[in-house]
Amino acid sequence: MVTGSTAVEIGLNAAIVTVDDRNPKILVISSDKPDGALLDGLPLGSFDPLHHRTFETGLRASVEEQTALHLGYVEQLYTFGDRGRHKQADDVGPHIVSVGYLALTRNDGEQTGALQRAGAQWRDWYGYLPWEDWRAGRPEMLDAVIIPALKEWAQQPQNEDAGRLPNRHSRLRLGFGDEDFPWDEERVLERYELLYEAGLVKEAVSDGRVDKTGFASPLGRPMRLDHRRILATAMARLRGKLKYRPVVFELMPPEFTLTALQSTVEAISGRHLHKQNFRRLVEGAELVETTGATSTATGGRPAALYRFRRKILDERPAPGIKVGGR
User: Fold this and answer.
1) What is the spatial distance between Cα 282 and Cα 265, in angstroms, rounded to a whole number?
2) What is the DSSP letter of 31?
3) Same domain membership, residue 100 and residue 159
4) Engineering a disulfide at 278: which of 25, 67, 266, 273 sits with its beta carbon 3.0 to 4.6 angstroms away?
5) Residue 186: domain span
6) What is the pLDDT of residues 183-209, one digit of tens each?
7) In this structure, what CATH number is given to the domain that contains residue 20?
8) SS3 163
9) pTM for the complete prediction?
């Protein structure tokens, strides 16, 4: 028997990624909070079936309208529809179900003015998930703050609903590579969801899950609603996809040095890679071919320029960069 109904609106979220000066960036739009502060969010538009034939065409149109950015590579991530994800106190509006997308683009600098006029800007994606950046080694905040807080949370009694999940200790060891478990760079979403469930991120406070995180400063820059969860999903997808599809070249200019390619892979994976091993890996996989030209942009010795060898798409089913685990 149906006792009531709730209006549902379909939203379209875009996690738009670029790499600029060896750092991965995410495009955000800042909006006002009730206290007057600004809070970052991913571009969000509504699906209108009268004007958009598909979700993707609706996404492209809304992003262009909001940010003046023309998207290139786009793929659907996941549908985010949990009850309460957009609900605020005294909110009588429709329940919003968002279809999340990952989009990759090259930042050539020509878009900066248009983005600023639209109120959009590129931000370092590790500013939102700082524990994911291992390029300079294991982040200090893991052992100093995060893991001790999660271990304390794991010892607390669990309610009946939590009984359907693996126990907290197991999830902590698997997600954060604690004790004898290795760190898996693809478990981005699992790590964020653990922090949210434990009430350690600002979004848990905003959602009324906890009164406060207990930290003097937040764990990463918070985002509006569940947009940081969408960002974590996008980061996990892109890191995994690096290993079996040549998506990294969507972030590269037509011609590039192997050093620039390595920096981009490191930026996305959050890992430092051995230079000679990386070069052997890329050249051995025949992902690139030399252009015959060189670049002196770094100011040192001329470096050979390469381009993506597109023929590889016809030769192998999974032509990615299979960087190994830690």
Assistant:
1) 11
2) E
3) no
4) 273
5) 134-220
6) 999 999 999 999 999 999 999 998 888
7) 3.90.79.10
8) helix
9) 0.88
